[in-house]
Design a protein that fits this description.
It is built from eight helices and seven strands, in the order ααβαβαββαβααβαβ. By secondary structure, the protein is α/β, with parallel strands linked by helices. The chain has a seven-stranded mixed sheet. The radius of gyration is 17 Å and the shape is globular.
């Protein structure tokens, strides 16, 4: 996918992306995804963190509210504008750039996180390599994507066949495929074990059961790597 067409795609989706997270199912998904990201990343006061592919700042706000200094990077200026608005008053810097060629110096961040951005990058190894490059020794990289083994991915693939503008550009990876994007060993967990059409009263129960059993089929796959 050419950079220009990808940028245009996300420019057109920023409002819809934000609106989805205000729906009942979107709010619940955000809750569980954010809990998993924060548990793996463990951001703390005074740390400098890169949020690569930050989008509209849906997860960025969780990081800066804990006292971390965050640089949010994205291709889309409309998305960055929304992220900047949400982060007003916090230690946040917006940077326009491509994850395949980060406009940032080596070893400049304590931790790096990327949430649901790798789906739109074919050369995942190069992108993850860039995330490692800008991370300091002893720091960690956390990346999360939609899990190819989940029922949610099956739904997205069905929408792709109907010509869905966003998901027709997505690359769905399994947990093992996500882990293989870095040369070092990583730690994997998944979340969102319920389906979009499950009984809302049972979704919390289903998620709790999924957390206890730890299957690799949760819709949200997140991996944590440590940089030596």
């Amino acid at each position: 996918m050419k950079k220009k067409s990808k940028k245009k795609l996300f420019d057109e989706w920023h409002a819809k992306y934000d609106r989805w997270f205000t729906t009942p199912i979107g709010l619940l998904v955000k809750k569980y995804e954010a809990e998993l990201i924060l548990d793996l990343l463990k951001p703390s006061h005074g740390e400098t963190i890169l949020d690569a592919g930050c989008g509209t700042g849906v997860f960025t706000v969780d990081l800066i509210s804990l006292g971390s200094r965050v640089v949010g990077l994205d291709l889309s200026l409309p998305m960055l504008t929304r992220a900047r608005e949400k982060s007003r008053g916090y230690l946040f810097q917006a940077v326009s750039g491509d994850m395949l060629n980060l406009p940032l110096p080596d070893n400049s961040f304590d931790k790096v996180v990327s949430v649901t951005a790798l789906e739109f990058i074919e050369d995942g190894k190069r992108a993850v390599g860039e995330l490692f490059r800008v991370t300091r020794s002893g720091g960690c990289v956390v990346a999360a994507t939609l899990n190819n083994l989940s029922p949610w991915a099956s739904r997205r693939k069905a929408e792709t066949k109907k010509g869905h503008a966003l998901f027709s550009r997505a690359i769905f990876r399994s947990p093992d495929e996500l882990l293989s994007l870095a040369p070092s060993e990583g730690f994997m967990r998944t979340a969102i074990h319920f389906e979009a059409d499950d009984d809302p009263e049972r979704e919390v129960q289903i998620e709790s059961k999924g957390r206890r059993k730890g299957p690799d089929t949760g819709a949200f796959a997140a991996v944590r790597w440590k940089k030596r």
